[in-house]
Write a structure and sequence with these properties.
seven-stranded mixed sheet; four-stranded antiparallel sheet; mainly beta
């Protein structure tokens, strides 16, 4: 069983940047696809970005060009670099392993 813990959220002004981190512990074997999801206020959780174990990445249109997903398998870490933040990026951000395991989320508020 894997435990996922996100950090790095906070409040930032529009145009600013944040870097989210997610650490995996327990059964943290690194061959899974890792992903970031987010849940906007009053909305369903939505997929944002994912990275396979071979390093290939995919992004939702809402994140493409502004956000960068990366991972460090030696440290069991997943990251999301978020630049040019907009108010519509305000959400609770979750990391996921294999679209089956989830962290508790970290709040990002852009004003």
């Amino acid at each position: 069983h894997v435990q996922l813990v996100e950090s790095g959220g906070g409040s930032v002004q529009a145009g600013g940047s944040l870097r989210l981190s997610c650490v995996a512990s327990g059964d943290s074997e690194g061959s899974y696809c890792m992903a970031w999801f987010r849940q906007l206020p009053q909305k369903e959780r939505e997929w944002g970005a994912s990275m396979d174990s071979d390093g290939s990445t995919r992004y939702a249109d809402s994140m493409k060009g502004r956000f960068t997903i990366s991972r460090d398998n030696t440290e069991n870490m997943l990251y999301l670099q978020m630049n040019s933040l907009k108010s519509e990026d305000t959400a609770l951000y979750y990391c996921s392993r294999g679209f089956a395991d989830w962290g508790q989320g970290t709040q990002v508020t852009v004003s």
